[in-house]
Amino acid sequence: MRWKEFELLEEVGLTGYERKALVTLMVHGVADAETLCRKGEVPSSKIYQAMEKLAHLGLVEIQPTRPKLYSALPGDEVVNRLVEISRHKAERFANKLRS
C-alpha cells in the first residue's frame, strides 16, 4: 500500500500510525491488533492508543471480544465523520480569530 496517498488524513489531526491503522482496517473490514500491526506497518506499542483515538473520533468501532476486534465503518460514514471533524476544527479556528 502506498501511504503517501493518505496524507490528507493528517489534516484532521491523525498521526502516521493512526492513518495507517484506519486505512488498513478499512481494507480488512474487521481485524485484531496483530493484523493491523502486520498489514498496516504499525508497531505493536502504538496500535492500541491509535485505535482508541480512532474510536474516540467515531472513525472505527471496538468490539469487546478477546482478543479485541476492531471494525471499520462504511466508507461514506468515515468520510462524513472526517468532514465533520474538519468543519469543527475550521469553526474553532474562525472563532479564535474573532476573539
Low-confidence stretches: none
Shape: elongated
Output the radius of gyration: 14 Å
Alpha carbon gap, first and last residue: 43 Å
Strand order in the largest sheet: 1-3-2
Structural class: mainly alpha
Helix amount = 55-70%
Order of helices and strands: HEHHEEH
Largest sheet: 3 strands, antiparallel
DSSP strand count: 3
DSSP strand content: 5-15%
Structure description:
The protein is mostly helical. It has 4 helices and 3 strands, in the order αβααββα. A 3-stranded antiparallel β-sheet has the order 1-3-2. β2 and β3 (69-72) form a beta hairpin. α1 (16-28) packs across α2 (33-40) and α1 (16-28) packs across α3. The protein is elongated and about 50 Å long. The termini are far apart. The mean pLDDT is 91.
Report a brief summary of the structure.
The protein is mainly α and 99 residues long.
Throw out a few tags for this protein:
99 residues; mainly alpha
What's the arrangement of secondary structure elements?
Elements: H1 16-28, E1 30-32, H2 33-40, H3 44-56, E2 60-63, E3 69-72, H4 75-98
